[in-house]
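Below is how a single chain appears once it has passed through the pipeline. First comes the sequence as given, then the structure the pipeline wrote out for it. We keep one example in the README because the format questions we get most often are answered faster by looking than by reading.
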Amino acid sequence: MMRTVLTCLLLMFIALPAFSADLTGRWTGTAEFTGEDGQPQNRGVIFILKQDGAVVTGQVGYDENMIAPISDGKFDGKKFTVRVVGDLEYKIEMNLTSENRLEGIAKFTPPNAPELSAKIVLNRIQQK
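Resulting structure:
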């Protein structure tokens, strides 16, 4: 009996961190990419997220005026994947590296051009 209780407690302890993270809130940071001139460039980005279980909704953009809704957002406790459809379709895959930091890659394909990518680093500035 005691062994069963200890096993259950251990399983709860192991599983808890995976489900305790919540992406809900406002995140800001930078997107680093190679510009048309071949030079590295940085651009500010903002993510406004709402998480309900594994489903993430919200908006993503360069600022409050250039923002697009999230479609197909998912979070498994560590990995955040999302598709954003605006002027271009972006596929973003990020990892939660700490409670308040997301890092990853955004990929998109402009019309008649090869796929481009940007490294994104976000810090949470407002929770829930």
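The chain has one domain: 22-127.

See the next section for the split statistics.
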